[in-house]
Each structure stands twice: as structure tokens, then as C-alpha cells.
């Protein structure tokens, strides 16, 4: 049996190893369009590779996917994050789970994952062909002919497409021509640009538990928020961008984001905190007595935004000043004009529609013996190891060839 894996990234390599282990006599070949293998694995997690997430249940795991949640929920029963943990540990790549449930190799170096894949593939006899892109797939009597960009073609019994997310629809034309429905690709997991907002001067500040939402929508998320020199980032913003990928694309990335800096819904409770602070520190400067242990530079910025002098004493802050502070702490607003996508780590919302794929096998519903794995499908997760988990799970299932 001849098996072709299209794509030399995370899903492609995992699929090739699984296929060779499941069918030792088969001839398994990975075709990678570029001259780089496992490029995204290399740069993921700041070069440490966030291989999966330590979510404690399949429900918790699947809830992290804006697209593909129900599709993956069933798939995770076949190969979960616990299985990933075991898979790497059995191959002498110990993993560690951080407090935030992100899972990394103990070495804190993505090269450990890359070496594991390359060495395992080599030991099993998987052939790897770089600089070999595919321009078309043709079905011929239950076999599949791959036409390469150079013009030549080869026949295979099974083919797994693991080409990753395509930022442009044209990159999926060759799959659409086989009858697959394509969901328009748009960016996911991006940061918010705020060119007109002075808060950018506070770059580097992190608020550990903020709540952010998009004005005029039901989109909401919470978690750490990072102020950058171009706007806002951090898990809370990235999660919001993932769940709002289509909506934010439709408004051309021009919208208002509301920030609750103190993660408190009840304004009366926030007012109580400020009154208590004022009552206990009437002679202290507002700049020197901060509520909710907010970063001092952020608190100074909010005081200025509320038109309160940092040299004003707490006992001198009147009712109007208190009301302005409560509003800023719970309902601050910033204008977003544009996004920044991490090029090496871009994640795409869209791809081959899950309606075109059998979720039990990852086989195409339109082309026999053609399978899919990874982000080429309309599946994407929030930040935290979820996108790699989807790659491992779908690749594992695809390589069963049921």
C-alpha cells in the first residue's frame, strides 16, 4: 500500500508516524511544499511548543474551539489530551503542565518535539520529500493521483491532506474542485491595534483577570490582558478574537472594545471598595492608594482619564469623581482599528467544511481514500495548546484508514 501525506507540519508528521505504525508494510511518504519541516512547531509557544492543554475533561477541552467543538468532542474520545501526554512520555519526551494548564516539553524547547518526530519517522522508514507541492488530486479506480507543481504525477492508495490553514481561499481551490465545501478563511487569534489610544504608552503592563467584550455584540472573554505598544493582547484578547473571528472580519476590524479591569459585574460593590479605600485613607494621595491591587501605572492612567489629579487626596474625591472611577474600572472603552497577526503562528478560521468530512474517520465524503488532518479543516482553537491537540487527534484518526 502506498500512502501520501500532504504537508510536513504537526498534523502531517503525526499522521505519517501513525500510518506507518498501523501499516508497517506500507510505503509512507510526506510531501512538503516548502523546504522547512515542522515550522509552526518550532516557533510555537515562544519556541517552547505548547503541545496540548491539561483540561481535565473532554467537555472542557472541546469548549475551547470556536469552530469544530462538537466534531472534536466525539474525536477526543478516540485520542485525547491524556493520550498525547502518554504518547510523548513513551517516546522519552517528558511533558510538564503549567498552572494555566498549558503543556510544554520538560526541556522548554520545541526542538525536543521536532527531534522526536524526525527520529521516529526516520526509524520507521517514512520517506520525506521537501520542495514538493501538490497542484491537484484525481481519483482513478479507487486510487488517487497526485499531480505535483513540477507537472509530474504519482498514484497512491491513501492520501491524508494536512496542509495547515490557508490564509486565502485560492489556496483551497484544488480541494474545492473535488466537491468539498469551503468555509471562507479569515484570521483567528490576533491582537487589537489601537493607533489613536494613549493607553499604548503603558506597554508591558499585564492585568491578570480582566473581562473584555466587543460593543454591540455578545462576544465576551476574561483572563490576562497585556497592553502592548500597538494596543492590546494577552489570552483574554486572543480568545475574543478567536470566537469573534467572522464578526470582526465583517466589520473590517474597526470596533470598540469594553474592558472591565476589576472583573466585577456589580458597580455598587466597586463603589463600596472605593468608599472604604477613601474612608480608611482620607489623607493619602489617590495615586498612592490603589484599589484591587491594580498596576500603579495603569491606576495613574485611569485617574488621569477620570480627570482626577494624582496629587488629590482620597478625602477630596467627590461623588462625581467616584462615579467616573467606577465607570472606568468596570466599563472602560477603547477604539480598535486593525489587528496584528503573528505570521509564523497564524491560525485560520475556515477551511474545508466539516460537512464534507466523516467525523468518525476523517475521510472525505466526496473522494474515497482521501482523508484530512489538522487546520486545513474548519477547526480552530483558542490559545493554550488546543490547536496542536486538534492536529494530533485528527491525524491519529485519519491514519486508521477505517
Strand tally is 20
What percentage of the residues does DSSP assign to strands (E)? 15-25%
Evaluate the radius of gyration. 25 Å
The number of helices is 13
Q: What is the arithmetic mean of pLDDT?
A: 96
Q: Order of strands across the biggest sheet? A: 17-16-13-14-15-12-18
Tell me the helix content.
Answer: 25-40%
CATH homologous superfamily title of the largest domain: FAD/NAD(P)-binding domain
State the major sheet.
7 strands, antiparallel
Q: What is the SS-derived class?
A: alpha+beta
What does this structure look like?
32% of the residues lie in helices and 25% in strands. A hairpin with a 4-residue loop joins strand 8 (143-148) and strand 9 (153-156). The chain is built from 13 helices and 20 strands. The two termini are 14 Å apart. It folds into 2 domains: 2-187 and 347-398, FAD/NAD(P)-binding domain (3-Layer(bba) Sandwich), CATH 3.50.50.60; 190-340, no CATH class. With 402 residues, it is α+β, with helices and mostly antiparallel strands. Helix 1 packs parallel to helix 6, helix 1 (10-22) runs parallel beside helix 13 and helix 10 (267-280) crosses helix 12. The strands form 5 sheets. Strands 17-16-13-14-15-12-18 form a 7-stranded antiparallel beta sheet. Strands 6-2-1-10-20 form a 5-stranded parallel beta sheet, covered by helices on one side. The protein has a 3-stranded antiparallel beta sheet with strand order 3-5-4.
Summed up, what is this model?
The protein has 402 residues and is α+β, with helices and mostly antiparallel strands. The protein has helices at 10-22, 39-47, 58-62, 69-76, 81-90, 111-124, 173-176, 235-243, 245-250, 267-280, 296-305, 319-331, 386-398; strands spanning 2-6, 27-32, 52-53, 95-97, 102-105, 127-130, 134-140, 143-148, 153-156, 158-161, 182-188, 191-193, 206-214, 220-227, 231-233, 254-260, 332-337, 339-340, 347-352, 370-372. Strand 1 (2-6), helix 1 and strand 2 (27-32) form a beta-alpha-beta unit.
